[in-house]
User: Fold Aminoglycoside phosphotransferase from Streptomyces cavernicola.
Amino acid sequence: MTRSAVPTRAVDLRIEPVDEVLERVETALRTCLDRDSVVRKRRSVGARTDRGTWVRVERRGFDRIDAQGWNGTERAAFLNGVAQPEWHGCVVWRDAAEPVMWRADETDLLPAPPIGTAVLSGDPELPDDWWPQFNASLDALMGQTTRRIATPDTVTLTQAVVTESIRSVFADGFETTVKNWVPAHADLNWANLTAPEFCIFDWEDWGNAPRGLDSASLWASSLAAPALADRVRHERRCDFASRDGKLMALFTASKILGPHAHPEDPRIKPARLVAEQFVAELQAG
Assistant:
């Protein structure tokens, strides 16, 4: 068995010891990390530096690093017209004991706090000027050109993935082929957006995706707060009116309604109701 073929050990960085990793990052980037500011997530760890920046460290198995590379945050720095923290540099290394890579990206601090968790159940009371900034950045992102392919949850997004996910929940009777692929953040939820000053962060998985993926993802994250979900649909109505946008609404809804859905998820009922509407529209052509 080759090194790259060795199965990657499942790791949750919320509980895995990371002191040695953080020390290596400090040495490589010539900075000190504020241990009191450390934020630990399942596959990443972040902390503030002594020079007023932020470092995000991620662990990823060889099998989750494809030919396009593993540099989403770095490549996002070249996007025009998209509000995001400025990227400063990175360090990447191969783990000596396991078939995994580590990457630490240094960026500016966020201009404002994250709006919330990935799924919101209440109104975040966003200022009036937040939505125009949101729309401007999403429209600018869709207008870029890239050879990257979106990798939501580190899974390369393909037509086959879209079709399989939709068909796992919704009946046949409409075509699932995507017509327009455009650049997308691919992990757009309320945990990756800031307010009152708007910006989008966590760009590791961005790339080409079906039009409407970002709009549908944020809508799905809002379904437990009906007024907020309606606002997202209104603001991104051009996406939801498109055939690809309706497919993306079903794609994101399938994550809520699929076999691994939590029976107490408050988004199940509204997701089903709206999905039925989109299915009917797609079947009608």
